[in-house]
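Lab notebook, bench 4. Still working through the backlog of constructs that have no structural model yet. Next entry is a single chain of 67 residues. Request: give me the C-alpha cells for it.
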Amino acid sequence: MSGQTSTSTPTIGADTQPKPGDDAPPGTPGTGEAVCRRCGGSGRLPDGQSCADCGGTGRVNQGIGGG
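Model written out:
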C-alpha cells in the first residue's frame, strides 16, 4: 500500500433528480423511499422495459404520514 486512502464512498440518495413517480425530490423533509407501485420494486415492467416511474430503480420518493 502507498498510504493513500480511498475517497470513493457509496452515497445513499446520491440521485437528487426527481423521477416521474416521485411525490417530491429526494431529501425533502416528510418524504422517504418506497417501493414503486408501477413495477412492484423490480425496476422492470412486464414487457421487460425499464419502468419510467422509478427510472428502473424500483424505488420512488413518497410522502410519509402527517396531515
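Notes after review: The chain is about 0% helix and 15% strand. Confidence is low (pLDDT under 50) at residues 6-13. Flag for follow-up if needed.
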